[in-house]
Amino acid sequence: xHPLNHPDVPPKPSSPPTAGLPRVPAAEYGVPxxxxxxxxxxxxxxxxxxxxxxxxxxxxxxxxxxxxxxxLAVIGSLVWLALWLNSNGxxxxxxxxxxxxxxxxVTPPATPLPLPREVEPPAYALGDCFTDFHPEALKSTVVxxxxxxxxxxxxxxxYPEEGDYPGAEALKAKALEACQAAKLGPAxxxxxxxxxxxxxxxxxxxxxxxxxxxxxxxPGGNNVNASVLP
Length: 230
Description:
- With 230 residues, this protein is of the alpha+beta class.
- It has a domain at 103-217.
- The chain contains 3 helices and 7 strands, in the order H-E-E-E-E-E-H-E-H-E.
- It has helices spanning 50-94, 168-180, 202-206, and strands spanning 101-103, 117-119, 129-131, 140-143, 151-158, 194-198, 211-217.
């Protein structure tokens, strides 16, 4: 038997053709076009060659050597400064430049009244005036400064009690410094005056003499009749 033919059932449509269909841009339908895929750059290989690595190693070595030289220079400078300060301290002491007391201004009273009177050198006071003065005399006559005299004590430097004898040359230098520190008043311009220095001998130092004296003296003798201090 033949199969029944059902004319009221339409035949199954065939698959739509695809080869001849036109391509319509998506933009005509309001659909945004697909963006092209983003291509990320491939990572750069920064691996260094052996020559570059050696160059960088030499640079690091040079920098380390430079900093080491600078550090050694700084340390050497500090050591040299310490040695210099230490040696200077010894030189100053040997030349008499040690701590002490410098007296340039009269603190009344000087040698007590009545005057004139005979005074030994350890008792000389700053501002005293002397007749017939000699710096090495065992005694001198102190007189009022408004009477005729030949010398006046204008500066005294006192060494500390402790310490060894500095030596004659160091004491001479200290006495010169003392005279250079003298502060004279207007009366000094009225007379012809010289400086004279007096300092301890090794014997007097051992007995406790620690003072260096500076005097102004008149080469003409007892012809000064005023104090030359301010």
